[in-house]
Design brief:
The model has no long low-confidence stretch (mean pLDDT about 95). The protein is α+β, with helices and mostly antiparallel strands. A hairpin with a 2-residue loop joins strand 5 and strand 6. The structure holds iron/sulfur cluster. The site of iron/sulfur cluster has 9 residues, from helix 4.
Protein backbone atom coordinates (compact mmCIF):
# COMPACT_ATOMS: atom_id res chain seq x y z
CA UNK A 1 0.00 0.00 0.00
CA UNK A 2 2.81 2.41 0.94
CA UNK A 3 4.89 1.58 -2.13
CA UNK A 4 1.85 2.02 -4.36
CA UNK A 5 1.06 5.43 -2.84
CA UNK A 6 4.70 6.49 -3.15
CA UNK A 7 4.75 5.69 -6.86
CA UNK A 8 1.27 6.99 -7.53
CA UNK A 9 2.22 10.30 -5.89
CA UNK A 10 4.59 10.80 -8.86
CA UNK A 11 1.63 10.80 -11.24
CA UNK A 12 2.19 7.23 -12.41
CA UNK A 13 -0.68 4.80 -13.04
CA UNK A 14 -0.37 1.75 -10.83
CA UNK A 15 -1.79 -1.74 -11.31
CA UNK A 16 -1.58 -4.02 -8.26
CA UNK A 17 -1.07 -7.73 -8.81
CA UNK A 18 -1.92 -10.41 -6.32
CA UNK A 19 -0.38 -13.80 -6.99
CA UNK A 20 -2.72 -16.45 -5.67
CA UNK A 21 -2.08 -20.07 -4.67
CA UNK A 22 -3.84 -22.41 -2.20
CA UNK A 23 -1.29 -21.16 0.35
CA UNK A 24 -2.36 -17.52 0.28
CA UNK A 25 -5.50 -15.82 -0.96
CA UNK A 26 -6.30 -12.32 -2.22
CA UNK A 27 -9.13 -11.26 0.10
CA UNK A 28 -7.14 -8.91 2.33
CA UNK A 29 -5.17 -7.42 -0.55
CA UNK A 30 -8.40 -6.88 -2.46
CA UNK A 31 -9.77 -4.88 0.48
CA UNK A 32 -6.62 -2.77 0.62
CA UNK A 33 -6.74 -2.10 -3.12
CA UNK A 34 -10.42 -1.13 -2.89
CA UNK A 35 -9.72 1.20 0.04
CA UNK A 36 -7.06 2.90 -2.10
CA UNK A 37 -9.08 2.83 -5.29
CA UNK A 38 -6.25 0.92 -6.90
CA UNK A 39 -6.62 -1.20 -10.03
CA UNK A 40 -6.18 -4.80 -8.88
CA UNK A 41 -5.62 -8.07 -10.69
CA UNK A 42 -5.44 -11.59 -9.25
CA UNK A 43 -3.16 -14.06 -11.04
CA UNK A 44 -3.26 -17.72 -10.07
CA UNK A 45 0.26 -19.15 -10.06
CA UNK A 46 -0.36 -22.47 -8.28
CA UNK A 47 1.44 -24.76 -10.76
CA UNK A 48 4.59 -22.69 -11.15
CA UNK A 49 4.67 -21.85 -7.47
CA UNK A 50 4.41 -25.49 -6.46
CA UNK A 51 7.58 -26.25 -8.43
CA UNK A 52 9.35 -23.58 -6.39
CA UNK A 53 7.96 -25.02 -3.15
CA UNK A 54 9.22 -28.47 -4.14
CA UNK A 55 12.67 -27.32 -5.27
CA UNK A 56 13.64 -23.93 -3.83
CA UNK A 57 17.04 -22.90 -5.17
CA UNK A 58 17.59 -20.59 -2.23
CA UNK A 59 16.12 -22.90 0.42
CA UNK A 60 13.30 -22.54 2.89
CA UNK A 61 12.62 -20.08 5.69
CA UNK A 62 11.50 -21.34 9.10
CA UNK A 63 8.96 -23.77 7.57
CA UNK A 64 8.12 -24.69 3.94
CA UNK A 65 8.27 -21.04 2.84
CA UNK A 66 10.72 -20.57 -0.05
CA UNK A 67 10.54 -16.77 0.25
CA UNK A 68 13.47 -15.74 -1.97
CA UNK A 69 12.38 -18.00 -4.86
CA UNK A 70 8.73 -17.15 -4.27
CA UNK A 71 9.46 -13.42 -4.65
CA UNK A 72 11.59 -14.06 -7.73
CA UNK A 73 8.82 -16.13 -9.33
CA UNK A 74 6.15 -13.52 -8.63
CA UNK A 75 8.28 -10.74 -10.07
CA UNK A 76 9.20 -12.89 -13.07
CA UNK A 77 5.52 -13.40 -13.81
CA UNK A 78 4.84 -9.68 -13.32
CA UNK A 79 7.66 -9.02 -15.79
CA UNK A 80 6.12 -11.42 -18.30
CA UNK A 81 2.92 -9.40 -18.09
CA UNK A 82 4.44 -5.95 -18.58
CA UNK A 83 3.62 -5.70 -22.28
CA UNK A 84 0.14 -7.14 -22.00
CA UNK A 85 -0.89 -4.63 -19.34
CA UNK A 86 1.02 -1.74 -20.94
CA UNK A 87 3.37 -1.25 -17.99
CA UNK A 88 6.96 -0.02 -18.00
CA UNK A 89 8.39 -1.45 -14.78
CA UNK A 90 7.63 -3.44 -11.64
CA UNK A 91 7.84 -2.20 -8.07
CA UNK A 92 7.35 -3.96 -4.73
CA UNK A 93 6.90 -3.11 -1.07
CA UNK A 94 10.08 -4.89 0.03
CA UNK A 95 12.20 -3.10 2.62
CA UNK A 96 15.94 -3.62 2.95
CA UNK A 97 16.66 -5.70 6.07
CA UNK A 98 13.01 -6.20 7.00
CA UNK A 99 13.30 -9.98 6.75
CA UNK A 100 16.66 -11.52 7.60
CA UNK A 101 16.64 -14.06 4.77
CA UNK A 102 14.55 -12.74 1.92
CA UNK A 103 15.14 -9.00 2.19
CA UNK A 104 18.81 -8.60 2.93
CA UNK A 105 20.84 -6.80 0.27
CA UNK A 106 22.13 -10.02 -1.30
CA UNK A 107 18.62 -11.49 -1.54
CA UNK A 108 17.15 -8.33 -3.03
CA UNK A 109 19.87 -8.39 -5.70
CA UNK A 110 19.41 -12.10 -6.34
CA UNK A 111 15.64 -11.70 -6.65
CA UNK A 112 16.10 -8.86 -9.17
CA UNK A 113 18.49 -11.06 -11.15
CA UNK A 114 16.56 -14.34 -10.96
CA UNK A 115 13.23 -12.72 -11.74
CA UNK A 116 14.79 -11.54 -15.00
CA UNK A 117 13.68 -7.97 -14.22
CA UNK A 118 17.11 -6.74 -13.06
CA UNK A 119 17.04 -2.91 -13.13
CA UNK A 120 13.35 -2.82 -14.01
CA UNK A 121 12.55 -3.84 -10.42
CA UNK A 122 12.09 -0.86 -8.09
CA UNK A 123 11.78 -0.95 -4.29
CA UNK A 124 10.39 2.52 -3.59
CA UNK A 125 10.50 2.17 0.22
CA UNK A 126 14.26 1.53 0.28
CA UNK A 127 15.29 2.91 -3.13
CA UNK A 128 17.68 5.56 -1.77
CA UNK A 129 19.76 2.80 -0.15
CA UNK A 130 19.93 0.69 -3.31
CA UNK A 131 21.56 1.18 -6.70
CA UNK A 132 19.52 3.37 -9.07
CA UNK A 133 17.19 1.40 -11.29
CA UNK A 134 16.39 2.09 -14.94
CA UNK A 135 13.13 3.98 -14.20
CA UNK A 136 15.13 6.28 -11.88
CA UNK A 137 17.99 6.75 -14.35
CA UNK A 138 15.61 7.49 -17.20
CA UNK A 139 13.67 9.95 -15.05
CA UNK A 140 10.39 8.02 -15.28
CA UNK A 141 10.36 8.30 -11.50
CA UNK A 142 12.17 10.80 -9.27
CA UNK A 143 14.68 9.02 -7.03
CA UNK A 144 14.78 11.90 -4.53
CA UNK A 145 11.07 11.38 -3.79
CA UNK A 146 11.57 7.71 -2.97
CA UNK A 147 12.41 6.49 0.55
CA UNK A 148 15.25 5.08 2.62
CA UNK A 149 13.57 2.64 4.99
CA UNK A 150 15.60 -0.24 6.33
CA UNK A 151 15.60 -2.72 9.21
CA UNK A 152 13.08 -4.78 11.07
CA UNK A 153 11.22 -1.95 12.81
CA UNK A 154 8.00 -1.01 11.11
CA UNK A 155 7.82 2.37 12.81
CA UNK A 156 8.77 4.39 9.68
CA UNK A 157 6.13 2.51 7.68
CA UNK A 158 3.52 3.21 10.35
CA UNK A 159 4.44 6.89 10.42
CA UNK A 160 4.18 7.08 6.63
CA UNK A 161 0.82 5.31 6.75
CA UNK A 162 -0.34 7.95 9.22
CA UNK A 163 0.81 10.76 6.98
CA UNK A 164 -0.98 9.14 4.01
CA UNK A 165 -4.14 8.58 6.07
CA UNK A 166 -3.89 4.82 5.66
CA UNK A 167 -5.23 3.31 8.87
CA UNK A 168 -6.62 -0.05 7.83
CA UNK A 169 -3.71 -2.20 6.71
CA UNK A 170 -2.95 -5.92 7.10
CA UNK A 171 -0.89 -7.03 10.08
CA UNK A 172 2.69 -7.83 9.04
CA UNK A 173 3.74 -11.36 8.28
CA UNK A 174 0.34 -13.06 8.35
CA UNK A 175 -1.46 -14.87 5.63
CA UNK A 176 0.94 -17.40 4.14
CA UNK A 177 0.28 -20.99 5.24
CA UNK A 178 3.77 -22.01 4.15
CA UNK A 179 5.16 -20.23 7.20
CA UNK A 180 3.06 -22.41 9.55
CA UNK A 181 4.82 -25.46 10.96
CA UNK A 182 1.75 -27.75 11.19
CA UNK A 183 0.61 -26.96 7.67
CA UNK A 184 4.15 -27.39 6.36
CA UNK A 185 4.39 -30.83 7.94
CA UNK A 186 1.24 -31.93 6.12
CA UNK A 187 2.42 -30.37 2.86
CA UNK A 188 5.81 -32.06 3.07
CA UNK A 189 4.13 -35.40 3.69
CA UNK A 190 1.89 -34.91 0.65
CA UNK A 191 4.71 -33.83 -1.66
CA UNK A 192 6.83 -36.77 -0.50
CA UNK A 193 4.04 -39.28 -1.11
CA UNK A 194 2.77 -37.90 -4.42
CA UNK A 195 4.75 -36.85 -7.48
CA UNK A 196 1.81 -34.96 -8.94
CA UNK A 197 -0.72 -33.30 -6.65
CA UNK A 198 -4.08 -31.79 -7.49
CA UNK A 199 -5.17 -28.38 -6.21
CA UNK A 200 -7.97 -30.03 -4.22
CA UNK A 201 -5.38 -32.08 -2.33
CA UNK A 202 -3.60 -28.88 -1.36
CA UNK A 203 -6.93 -27.38 -0.26
CA UNK A 204 -7.58 -30.49 1.81
CA UNK A 205 -4.44 -29.80 3.85
CA UNK A 206 -6.29 -26.90 5.47
CA UNK A 207 -8.98 -29.04 7.10
CA UNK A 208 -9.12 -31.95 9.51
CA UNK A 209 -6.69 -34.22 11.30
CA UNK A 210 -4.33 -35.96 8.89
CA UNK A 211 -3.05 -39.50 9.36
CA UNK A 212 -0.50 -41.31 7.19
CA UNK A 213 -1.73 -44.89 7.56
CA UNK A 214 0.30 -46.41 4.75
CA UNK A 215 3.16 -45.30 2.46
CA UNK A 216 0.57 -44.46 -0.20
CA UNK A 217 -2.52 -44.05 1.95
CA UNK A 218 -3.77 -41.07 3.89
CA UNK A 219 -6.80 -40.47 6.07
CA UNK A 220 -8.25 -37.03 6.81
CA UNK A 221 -10.76 -36.80 9.68
CA UNK A 222 -13.01 -33.74 10.05
CA UNK A 223 -12.95 -31.86 13.35
CA UNK A 224 -16.33 -30.16 13.07
CA UNK A 225 -19.39 -29.87 10.83
CA UNK A 226 -17.80 -27.36 8.47
CA UNK A 227 -14.69 -29.48 8.01
CA UNK A 228 -16.84 -32.57 7.43
CA UNK A 229 -18.59 -30.71 4.61
CA UNK A 230 -15.31 -29.45 3.15
CA UNK A 231 -13.82 -32.94 3.23
CA UNK A 232 -16.85 -34.34 1.46
CA UNK A 233 -16.70 -31.63 -1.21
CA UNK A 234 -12.98 -32.18 -1.84
CA UNK A 235 -13.19 -35.97 -2.20
CA UNK A 236 -11.86 -37.29 -5.50
CA UNK A 237 -13.61 -39.98 -7.52
CA UNK A 238 -11.34 -42.74 -6.23
CA UNK A 239 -11.32 -41.53 -2.61
CA UNK A 240 -13.31 -43.37 0.04
CA UNK A 241 -15.55 -41.48 2.46
CA UNK A 242 -16.17 -42.97 5.88
CA UNK A 243 -18.82 -41.85 8.34
CA UNK A 244 -19.84 -43.16 11.72
CA UNK A 245 -23.54 -44.04 11.42
CA UNK A 246 -24.31 -45.51 14.84
CA UNK A 247 -23.17 -42.40 16.72
CA UNK A 248 -22.52 -38.78 15.75
CA UNK A 249 -19.03 -38.57 14.38
CA UNK A 250 -16.71 -37.16 11.78
CA UNK A 251 -16.58 -37.59 8.04
CA UNK A 252 -13.23 -39.09 7.05
CA UNK A 253 -11.58 -39.34 3.66
CA UNK A 254 -9.27 -42.16 2.68
CA UNK A 255 -7.06 -41.48 -0.34
CA UNK A 256 -4.46 -43.62 -2.08
CA UNK A 257 -4.13 -47.40 -1.84
CA UNK A 258 -7.07 -48.91 0.02
CA UNK A 259 -6.63 -52.61 0.82
CA UNK A 260 -8.99 -54.29 3.30
CA UNK A 261 -6.59 -53.77 6.22
CA UNK A 262 -6.23 -50.09 5.45
CA UNK A 263 -10.00 -49.63 5.23
CA UNK A 264 -10.37 -51.42 8.57
CA UNK A 265 -7.80 -49.11 10.12
CA UNK A 266 -9.49 -46.04 8.61
CA UNK A 267 -12.83 -47.22 10.03
CA UNK A 268 -11.24 -47.75 13.45
CA UNK A 269 -9.82 -44.21 13.44
CA UNK A 270 -13.17 -42.81 12.31
CA UNK A 271 -14.87 -44.75 15.11
CA UNK A 272 -12.34 -43.52 17.66
CA UNK A 273 -13.29 -39.92 16.84
CA UNK A 274 -17.03 -40.57 16.97
CA UNK A 275 -19.05 -39.11 19.82
CA UNK A 276 -19.44 -40.97 23.11
CA UNK A 277 -20.59 -38.03 25.27
CA UNK A 278 -23.83 -38.65 27.15
CA UNK A 279 -24.24 -42.15 25.78
CA UNK A 280 -23.37 -45.57 26.91
CA UNK A 281 -20.00 -46.29 25.43
CA UNK A 282 -20.38 -49.31 23.23
CA UNK A 283 -17.37 -51.11 21.89
CA UNK A 284 -18.23 -50.94 18.18
CA UNK A 285 -19.37 -48.27 15.77
CA UNK A 286 -20.97 -48.82 12.42
CA UNK A 287 -19.03 -46.88 9.80
CA UNK A 288 -20.42 -46.39 6.30
CA UNK A 289 -17.98 -46.71 3.41
CA UNK A 290 -18.73 -44.79 0.25
CA UNK A 291 -16.70 -44.31 -2.95
CA UNK A 292 -17.73 -41.60 -5.40
CA UNK A 293 -21.53 -41.85 -5.65
CA UNK A 294 -21.58 -45.52 -4.53
CA UNK A 295 -22.33 -46.84 -1.07
CA UNK A 296 -19.95 -49.76 -0.63
CA UNK A 297 -20.87 -51.25 2.73
CA UNK A 298 -21.17 -50.66 6.46
CA UNK A 299 -18.33 -51.90 8.66
CA UNK A 300 -18.50 -52.56 12.38
CA UNK A 301 -15.36 -51.03 13.79
CA UNK A 302 -14.08 -51.54 17.34
CA UNK A 303 -13.70 -48.33 19.33
CA UNK A 304 -10.11 -47.67 20.41
CA UNK A 305 -8.66 -44.83 22.42
CA UNK A 306 -7.68 -41.99 20.06
CA UNK A 307 -4.23 -41.95 21.64
CA UNK A 308 -3.48 -45.28 19.94
CA UNK A 309 -3.44 -43.52 16.56
CA UNK A 310 -1.41 -40.52 17.60
CA UNK A 311 1.81 -41.87 16.11
CA UNK A 312 0.15 -41.90 12.68
CA UNK A 313 -0.85 -38.25 12.85
CA UNK A 314 1.03 -35.97 10.47
S1 LIG B 1 5.78 -15.75 3.13
FE1 LIG B 1 4.81 -17.10 1.63
S2 LIG B 1 3.97 -15.71 0.07
FE2 LIG B 1 5.45 -14.54 1.25
S3 LIG B 1 7.35 -14.75 0.10
FE3 LIG B 1 7.36 -16.34 1.66
S4 LIG B 1 6.53 -18.14 0.62
FE4 LIG B 1 5.99 -16.36 -0.64
Amino acid sequence: MLAAETIRAQGIDVLAFFFETPFFGPERAQQSASAMDLAFKVVNITRRHLEVVRHPRSGYGSAMNPCVDCHALMFRIAGEMLDSVGAAFVFTGEVLGQRPMSQNRGSLNRIARESGLRDLLVRPLSAKLLLPTLPEEKGWIQREELLDFQGRSRRPQMELANRLNISDYPSPGGGCLLTEKGFSRRLKDLLTARADVETRELELLKSGRHFRIGPHTKLVVGRNKLENEIIQTLAGEQDILLKSVSAPGPTALLSGESSGDLINMAAAITAAYSDTAGQDVSDVRDVSIRQGARDIRVLSAPVHDKAEFKALMI
